[in-house]
Structures are given as structure tokens and as C-alpha cells.
Design brief:
Order of helices and strands: EHEHEHEHHEHEHEEEE
CATH class: Alpha Beta
Number of helices: 7
CATH topology: Rossmann fold
Helix content: 25-40%
Strand content: 15-25%
Structural class: alpha/beta
CATH architecture: 3-Layer(aba) Sandwich
Radius of gyration: 16 Å
CATH superfamily: Class I glutamine amidotransferase (GATase) domain
Strand order of the largest sheet: 3-2-4-5-1-8-9
Shape: globular
Length: 215
């Protein structure tokens, strides 16, 4: 499983080049399932088009838009018959709720085992053990009243995308002191790559690791 966890998609040539490298095939021949569910409840979701255009700059042409809030028969084949699962950003609480309803909190790990998973913002946060960090100021709007923040647990740390761009560093630092998990924080020019059990930052920008205060 290869996880390429971005804040803001493929915002620069370094991230786009790394994406192409991770594909391990000609981008023109690659299929991408672009899950845009998290953006559906955002008042301003113009960023989705920007992310699509940056993805197309890599040479990718075959992109299927997927909304997992729709009946499973509408999108299930797209997930199994693709090279890349792209989990677009938006409202983290809504995304996790729809993943639970769809059954993908249990099944998605098996689906992406032999694929490339690209997360954007909320799509990156959900791979951690919890999405509690989505409550950090300025928070996502928890309009569904979610109280169980347990997430996919593909990694054993939390992620804080948009740090210093949108989320103030001091707010992340305060949260990190109370969290039982290590926090990987980074800005919109950086991505976190997890491959072959190795974890590292990609890109030129701000990044910082807040180690768990608990042993």
C-alpha cells in the first residue's frame, strides 16, 4: 500500500513528479477514482476543479468521479478497477460518516492494498486512528453531531494538513500536548508519503513532527 497524503493536492511540480513516480506506469494509461464526497457539503468547493486540473497536469486522462454517498452499485466497480484512489478534501466528519455508511471503513484497506492512495486534506486525516484533529481551530463543521472520531487506523499517528497556511501552528502545538498520538503537521506545498513501512515528507515547505507526550 502506498499512501500519498497531501494538504492541497498536487500543488507543485515536486508533488506531481512524485505522484507520477508512484504510479509506476504511463499516466496516460492510469485510471483514477476521484472520490469527491467530502466536498459535497462545502459551501465553496471550487478547489475540487483546481485539484482536478493539477492532477491532469501529470498526464492523467482517465478520471472517474465517485460519490460514496450514492448507492454502492454506482461506484463499487470504479474502486476495484482503478490504479489510484483519490480521496478529495472537504468536511472530515461528513467523509468519515459516509465511509462508515458505505462499509468502506472495513473494506477500503483491502481495496487499496495494490493501488496508490492519494489523500487531500480530509482524505489524508482519515487514515489516522482518529479525526479528532479536525476540531482544531479553525475546525471543520461537525453538523452531523459526530462523537465517535475513530478513523481508518492505517497509520498510528494523526495528520495536520494546511498547518501554517490555514491552521495556525500554535493551535496544532496546543492540540499535540493533549493528544495521545504523534502529529505530522505540514503545509500546502508538502505531502506525507508512506511506502514500504517508511514515512517521510515530500516537497519544499513547512513540516514538523510533534511526538506523543505519552510513553
Amino acid at each position: 500500500m502506498k499512501l500519498f497524503l497531501t494538504s492541497n493536492g498536487l500543488t507543485n511540480y515536486v508533488l506531481r513528479n512524485k505522484f507520477v513516480e508512484l504510479l509506476e506506469k504511463n499516466p496516460k494509461e492510469a485510471n483514477v477514482a476521484f472520490i469527491n464526497t467530502a466536498s459535497k457539503v462545502q459551501d465553496d468547493n471550487g478547489y475540487v476543479e483546481t485539484d482536478l486540473q493539477n492532477l491532469k497536469k501529470t498526464g492523467v486522462k482517465n478520471i472517474s468521479l465517485v460519490d460514496i454517498s450514492e448507492p454502492k452499485e454506482n461506484w463499487q466497480n470504479n474502486l476495484f478497477e482503478t490504479d489510484v484512489i483519490w480521496m478529495e478534501g472537504g468536511n472530515t466528519f461528513y467523509l468519515l460518516e459516509e465511509l462508515r455508511k458505505s462499509g468502506l471503513t472495513k473494506d477500503l484497506k483491502d481495496v487499496v492494498k495494490e493501488k496508490l492512495y492519494v489523500g487531500v486534506s480530509a482524505g489524508s486525516i482519515i487514515v489516522g486512528p482518529t479525526i479528532t484533529i479536525a476540531n482544531v481551530e479553525p475546525p471543520d463543521i461537525n453538523s452531523i453531531g459526530m462523537t465517535d472520531f475513530s478513523a481508518l487506523s492505517w497509520v498510528n499517528f494523526e495528520l495536520s494538513p494546511h498547518t501554517t497556511n490555514f491552521v495556525p501552528l500554535e493551535n496544532v502545538e496546543k492540540f499535540a500536548k493533549e493528544s495521545p498520538y504523534t502529529i505530522y503537521a505540514y503545509d500546502d506545498n508538502v505531502a506525507l508519503l508512506i511506502q514500504n513501512e517508511k514515512v517521510g515528507f515530500v516537497g519544499n515547505g513547512f513540516n514538523k513532527i510533534f511526538l506523543s507526550p505519552q510513553p
